[in-house]
Design brief:
- It is a single chain.
- The protein has about 350 residues and is of the alpha/beta class.
- The chain has three domains: about 160 residues, Tetrapyrrole methylase, N-terminal domain (Cobalt-precorrin-4 Transmethylase, domain 1, 3-Layer(aba) Sandwich), CATH 3.40.1010.10; about 100 residues, Methyltransferase, Cobalt-precorrin-4 Transmethylase, Domain 2; about 70 residues.
- Helices cover about 40% and strands about 15% of the residues.
- The protein has twelve helices and 14 strands.
- Strands 5-4-6-3-7 form a five-stranded parallel beta sheet, with helices on both faces.
- Helix 7 crosses helix 8, helix 8 packs antiparallel against helix 9 and helix 10 runs antiparallel to helix 11.
- The longest helix has 22 residues.
- It is globular and about 70 Å long.
- The chain binds S-adenosylmethionine.
- S-adenosylmethionine binds next to helix 6, strand 9 and strand 12.
């Protein structure tokens, strides 16, 4: 058994050096070899399993092949799988040629299911927890079970996998770095609108999940409460045949959904981009940026003084004109004779960031 990137593969004895590793059968062969030899053994061909451990596994959100080698190893190696809906998980296991004992765990039987899992862990089996799609405990069951099992002192190991929110975000082209995952909004319209009022001004991209039978009324509420100018990204049926990612203004989103009833079918992630920055936000961003640049060239005290002088000057101009005035190219760089640096594009950039 040799470790390759933290994973253990059964490597034939004749492999002695790094170039020999190229002769390891391709991934596909390894998977089929592993899945064909599925058993309850705690040591599988790829990943070493710890006995008496709960593994929380992310599973595909549509495309059955979106599953990691490590997830397949663990599903193959555990003694028991706790699944949200055993019929859904059975299809995934069958696709990957895994045969395994399963129990179902959902809101109505959670206490009994937890007891069965506890018993299996006590007997030294490892157990996998999966939901119908994506990552357990993310708008899905799992958190209570994990909490209980952890409190009992058993190890809980996450095996990362797909998640609809992150999948949508990764392809949305939103450059703002911060986001807030909200999940499902309330189903009742008055409660949903109240909730939207609460969150609409938060300075983050907001991520919502929505079901097909509520998508139209949800987007209609979003447009009414938040305003038509905000950008919405509708990510539908991700990783599936009819995958669609639509970027539009909220004002146009309802019309787009209504234009073709097929667009209201399937599963949805809604990404609401953050509200535009106010003049004060812009000013504070600018202050931080200025301070950062000054700190590269000056001692702390002097840098803070120069930055605050500059920002309060800008602030006075902004408040007297009622908006943020674009700063003139007179830069801190010129006033402090800061060094010049070349930008990656080859243009020369002053310490204030303005291109000269
Ligand atoms: N645990 C899952 C995860 O990690 O993303 C979420 C489960 S939640 C019960 C189901 C919701 O996730 C759907 O109503 C939809 O909003 C979103 N979702 C799941 N799969 C999706 C997909 N393929 N495309 C778009 N949204 C999806």
């Amino acid at each position: 058994m040799k470790p390759i990137g933290g994973i253990f593969y059964n490597v034939p004895q004749t492999f002695h050096n790094a170039s020999d590793l190229c002769r390891i059968p391709p991934v596909r062969t390894l998977i089929s070899a592993r899945t064909r030899s599925a058993s309850n053994s705690s040591m599988q061909a790829g990943t070493q399993l710890s006995p008496g451990t709960l593994y929380v596994i992310g599973t595909p959100i549509g495309n059955m092949r979106d599953i990691s080698l490590r997830s397949l190893d663990v599903l193959t190696g555990v003694g028991l799988i706790a699944a949200e809906d055993t019929r859904v998980t059975a299809r995934l296991l069958e696709y990957h040629s895994i045969k395994k004992k399963m129990i179902s765990i959902h809101a109505h039987n959670e206490a009994a299911a937890v007891m069965r899992i506890e018993r299996a862990l006590m007997e030294g089996y490892s157990v996998a927890l999966v939901t119908d799609a994506g990552t357990p405990a993310i708008s899905d069951p799992g958190a209570l079970m994990v909490k209980h099992i952890r409190n009992l002192g058993y190890e809980v190991i996450p095996i990362p996998g797909p998640n609809a929110a992150v999948c949508a975000l990764s392809a949305a082209g939103i450059t703002e770095p911060h986001f807030l995952f909200y999940g499902f909004l309330p189903a009742s319209p008055p409660a949903r609108r109240r909730e939207l009022q609460q969150v609409k001004s938060l300075p983050y991209t907001l991520i919502f999940y929505e079901a097909p039978h509520r998508i139209l009324e949800c987007v209609t509420d979003l447009a009414e409460v938040v305003g038509g100018h905000r950008e919405l990204i509708i990510a539908r049926e991700l990783t599936k045949l009819f995958e669609t990612i639509r970027v539009c203004q909220l004002a146009d989103a309802v019309q787009w959904l209504q234009a073709d009833s097929n667009r209201q079918r399937g599963e949805f992630v809604l990404l609401l981009t953050r509200p535009p920055k106010s003049a004060e936000d812009e000013l504070s961003d600018r202050a931080q940026h200025t301070l950062k640049l000054l700190l590269e060239a000056l001692p702390l005290k002097q840098a803070v003084k120069l930055a605050s002088d500059k920002v309060s000057r800008l602030s006075r101009v902004a408040s007297s004109s009622g908006r943020l005035v674009k700063p003139r190219p007179e830069s801190c760089a010129s006033s402090i004779s800061a060094p010049m640096s070349a930008s990656p594009a080859g243009r020369t950039t002053s310490m204030s960031g303005s291109v000269v």
